[in-house]
Amino acid sequence: MKAHDGMYIGGEWRPAHGRDTITVVNPADERVVGQVPAGDAGDVDDAVRAARAALPGWAATPPAERAARIAALRDVLAARQDEIAETVTAELGSPLPFSRSVHAALPVAVAGSYAELAATHTFEETLGNSTVLHEPVGVVGAITPWNYPLHQIVAKVAPALAAGCAVVLKPAEDTPLTAQLFAEAVHEAGLPAGVFNLVTGLGPVAGQALAEHEGVDLVSFTGSTAVGARIGAVASAAVKRVALELGGKSANVILPGADLARAVHVGVANVMANSGQTCSAWTRMLVDAERYEEAVALAAAALAKYAPGERIGPVVSAKQRARVRGYIEKGVEEGARLVVGGPEAPLERGYYVSPTLFADVTPDMTIAQEEIFGPVLCVLRYEDVEDALRIANGTVYGLAGAVWAADDAEAVAFARRMDTGQVDINGGRFNPLAPFGGYKRSGVGRELGPHGLAEYLQTKSLQL
């Protein structure tokens, strides 16, 4: 068990104002694996004050030096990947191989990309008789989710640091141990005191205080659309900027003539990754009527290989398990055909949900419209390409998606008409430099690469 009794504020570990704590439970076996302080508004105020004090010096630091500091942070994270993977597995329940390959390795790559961008980005340009400056927006309040605990931290903190901002991080209460490790890495990398600060706590307390604080210039939040809307309302009252990466109900569109076996195989793997707890997961598979039953059979065969407790882990909490089971029951109630899985617990211990496949799902069903955030795949039938487009665009979300076709040109033509922020074409590889973010209720702003850096910059023009 890892017990922490302090907050990382102003370059040192400080006791929390209060005595309340958060207990961290391993969702795979329901054992207590850690404890952290539950910070309050006083802790948040201390952290914001430390960030504001550090901001002028860090903003004035040459970009090349900021790049070197971020590179040092990347190197510390790389050296501690085994410890990071084990910690993520303990508090999230992710199988260790997935924790190593994704949860621990991806943040290293993202941190490295921002070390390079900090060194190469043009922070000053000339337009006619004007000099345009790209300056840090100020103090950033970063509120991160539990599903990719370190990646989401790095995807916010690294670009903010590259831009010259100071940061106060409030991580999810389900996975705070990884955030503690990140704070240790920041300290080991030698970042100036106050440039990065950590406050652990509950969303309605510490998160709310951070979003409301007058000393915060931008709130960057990843999580549910409902909470994002509340944060946006709080921030707008103070006319402060927000970056919101929210929910998704992404479509995996398999056009006639596509390689059906490959599209289904990759699609199932995409949904089952991280126990279905991925906001960009392709949870709606769209298949033409002629090949529909073949696709359902292929998906069922693929899903059978995801044994709970082995290839797929639990969901994060008992609350999340109840939520996912409720959606499965709703799917059955509304008339979808349950092909694989169901609401019954697959194991006696742990917050596991059976990998579940629904067929005969219609676009208006709850499971086709709302984000389930668990290992549940819905297969929908379409009549023609225009019908497929209508179904793909027929939700309030627009975060990600995929298109499969006989050739890339056909897939790209379809993807251009999708109302979503990122589309993979015929299994295109993940690109950590490509902008990630949503249309509609999937969010505001972008993360990763140069577009992610731009979120933390503001412009000033000097007319000469």
Sheet/helix structural class: alpha/beta
Give the count of helical stretches.
15
Helix content: 40-55%
Largest sheet: 7 strands, mixed
Mean pLDDT score: 97
Number of strands: 21
Uncertain residue segments: none
> Whole-number radius of gyration?
22 Å
Terminal Cα separation, in Å?
Answer: 61 Å
Walk across the major sheet and give the strand order: 15-16-17-14-13-18-19
- The rough form would be described as globular
Strand content is 15-25%
Account of the protein in words:
The model has no long low-confidence stretch (mean pLDDT 97). The strands form five sheets. Strands 15-16-17-14-13-18-19 form a seven-stranded mixed β-sheet, sandwiched between helices. A six-stranded mixed β-sheet has the order 10-9-8-11-12-20, sandwiched between helices. Strand 16, helix 12 and strand 17 (376-382) form a beta-alpha-beta unit. Helix 2 runs antiparallel to helix 5 (149-163) and helix 3 (81-92) runs antiparallel to helix 6 (176-189). The chain has helices at residues 41-59, 63-79, 81-92, 96-120, 149-163, 176-189, 203-212, 225-237, 260-272, 292-303, 318-333, 366-369, 385-392, 408-415, 449-454; strands spanning 2-3, 6-9, 12-15, 21-26, 31-37, 124-127, 130-136, 139-143, 166-170, 196-198, 218-222, 241-245, 251-254, 284-288, 337-340, 356-361, 376-382, 401-404, 424-425, 443-444, 457-463. The protein is of the alpha/beta class and 464 residues long.
